[in-house]
# Entry
Amino acid sequence: MTALDAKNRLILALDTADTKRAEALVEATKGLVGVYKIGLEFAMAGGLPFAEKLAREGHSVFLDMKLLDISNTVAGAVLGAAALGVDYLTVHAYPQAIAAAVAARPKGLKIVAVTVLTSLSDTDLADAGYTKSAADLVARRVRSAVELGADAVVCSPQEAGLAKQSGLSVICPGVRLADDAAGDQKRIATPQMALTAGADMVVVGRPINAAPDPAEAARIYVKAIQEGIAHAAARKPASARPH
Ligand code: C5P
# Structure
């Protein structure tokens, strides 16, 4: 595996309300990051035109809107996102929302089903009225995502192995190097562990954005991803390894 392969597995979350800051982060990490993610914080502060501009410039863009609404509204939002030219759009992994998004999905847009937020523990889920553990709920929602035709799922690295068995692409936030602060994330693991467990891509925000040198932090994450890829390949039976 080359550095390019590892780089393309790193999604940088541009979590900021400041377009100038986002521009600086993109400039600093150019060539080091495969995909830029725009989420709710930036969307409220100019992130959508920024997403459109990034896409126009040829960047791969992940619009993390975590849509959950009635089907008609989800379908309309999917068309709006597609018009921005982005590559990925997230919806919460509720069957109705996935089905509406998949039905409206134009060619070229990947619908990504977010299973259970990585900031939620089993206790948080119980507080919200769920009787299943995070792992069980992820498993159920991954099954829905497969049945309804989503392109990828988001889960924590702790469920990456079970999600990978679905055959869908697996995208993991909640990724931290050993010395990084967890912040509000609860179901976390290192990039090496995420890749080894089955993640295809990892999402990293604060550990890179808030680093004194975001470019250096991105390089360190790419190296850790590379180690995870190598470890995952070494664990595969020889017959399953690429020649
Ligand atoms: O700063 P940090 O690395 O924790 O950022 C993680 C990013 O991934 C945030 O933009 C967050 O919204 C997003 N995300 C997540 N958990 C999910 C889905 C998306 O943390 N299940």
